[in-house]
Specification:
It is built from 4 helices and 7 strands. Strands 1-7-6-4-5 form a 5-stranded mixed sheet. A two-stranded parallel ribbon has the order 2-3. The chain is rod-shaped. Helices cover about 35% and strands about 10% of the residues. It is an alpha/beta fold.
């Protein structure tokens, strides 16, 4: 092979190597650029989801009130809020459960004093929404401290209340309902945290079935025992 041919061959090989390196650099840049774009998109999607969820479950609309506990009376009470969120209440608390008829608010407020969340709804709430409401109430939080009942003349289709806190909602589908239950059920403002929302002396009747009971005396005093599971369940 002559010197000229050998020199030409070397130049050709060098050009091929240089071209290969350029292709590798372009491929690497394309790969990293695409990967970076995917990461940016993923971060944006996750960020949007988190912000969207935070907005949907925001409890900024919760109204807060201040009431002292242990104000027991044997008469009907006129409350400032509808439904009530604290104040005077009957000596007997309402058994935490789901009721299809209105209950005496004086019993319900006593349940709030023990840490319950009371979800009230308009009596004419459509059946599909009522079914959804019962589904949420049955699957969120601690069922031993969940009270649900219709309430006439509500300011909103659904109202969630705990002692000193209240949230008005247009629909039981609103994720704020679950967020309210998780935050305020057995919350730090509960006057008698750990007291049962059931027991033998709890009221299980609705307002149309029995009047408010008279003030108990002696051994008739209701026993506010500690529930075996008073802590809030974060479901």
């Amino acid at each position: 092979m002559t010197k000229e041919k050998a020199h030409a061959r070397r130049e050709h090989l060098e050009k091929m190597r240089a071209e290969q390196k350029r292709k590798q650099r372009r491929a690497a840049l394309l790969m990293w650029g695409t990967g970076g774009l995917i990461i940016v998109v993923l971060v944006g999607v996750v960020g949007y989801y988190l912000i969207d969820q935070a907005q949907k479950t925001s409890l900024d609309a919760v109204a807060n009130y201040k009431y002292e506990g242990s104000q027991h009376v044997a008469t009907a009470v006129t409350y400032k809020e509808t439904p009530p969120v604290g104040g005077q209440h009957n000596n007997y608390w309402q058994q935490c459960a789901i009721y299809d008829k209105p209950i005496h608010p004086e019993h319900a407020v006593h349940s709030l004093e023990h840490g319950a969340v009371w979800i009230t709804y308009r009596p004419d709430l459509p059946k599909a929404q009522l079914d959804k409401l019962k589904e949420v109430a049955s699957s969120t939080g601690n069922q031993q401290y969940m009270l649900v009942s219709p309430f006439p003349n509500l300011p909103a289709p659904v109202v969630a209340s705990s002692w000193g806190h209240q949230l008005k909602l247009n629909s039981p589908d609103d994720p704020k309902l679950g967020a309210f239950i998780k935050r305020y059920q057995n919350g730090p403002d509960t006057p008698e945290l750990g007291a049962t929302c059931g027991g033998d002396t709890a009221i299980t009747s609705t307002a149309d079935q029995a009047p408010l009971p008279p003030e108990p005396t002696g051994q008739q005093q209701p026993t506010e025992t500690t529930s075996p599971s008073p802590s809030q369940s974060q479901q």
